[in-house]
Amino acid sequence: MIDSFVKENDYAVAFTSIGINRYLSALRYCVIGNSSSGFVEAPSFCIPTINIGDRQKRLLQAESVINCEPIKEDMGQAIALALTEEFMSKAGKTVNPYMVMETHQGK
Predict the structure, then answer these.
(1) For the chain, what is the domain count?
(2) Residue 17: inside a domain, yes or no?
(3) Where is the UDP-N-acetylglucosamine 2-epimerase domain (predicted)?
């Protein structure tokens, strides 16, 4: 389905893997999907995460995470919220709960 979408839409590109350096570089924008990376790595970059669905529901969640259902309207509202100045400011001040845990476990 992804390959078909890319073939039909000139603006879309699909990669099997972009590697860690390119992925971390891409994190300067936003994380959208249902990847644990939006919970574990993204908060350290002070960017919004839009979590689609409930696959990650058991993970600790930073204030920079917006949860939405896998429904077009919900995803659109989540993206609109993530792009607001207020939410961007909130994401910029977020504390990564996984970094806090790691720091406390190391003591």
Answers:
(1) 1
(2) no
(3) 6-100
Residue 32 carries which DSSP code?
Answer: E
Residues in Cβ contact with 86 at an 8 Å cutoff, skipping those fewer than 6 apart: none
What angle in degrees, to the nearest 10, is found between the helix axes of 72-82 and 85-92? 70
Structure tokens at 66: 């917006």
Q: Is residue 1 part of a domain?
A: no
Residue 55: which of 44, 70, 40 has the closest Cα? 70
Residue with tokens 């609109």: 80
Instruction: Note whether residue 55 is domain-resident.
Output: yes
| Six token digits for residue 98 | 């996984």
What single-letter amino acid sits at 93?
K
Percent of the chain with pLDDT over 70: 93
Per-residue pLDDT of 64-80, as tens digits, reads 999 999 999 999 999 99
Predicted TM-score (pTM) of the model is 0.77
Q: What residues make up the domain containing 48?
A: 29-105
Assigned token pair, 5: 């979408």
Assigned token pair, 72: 């077009």
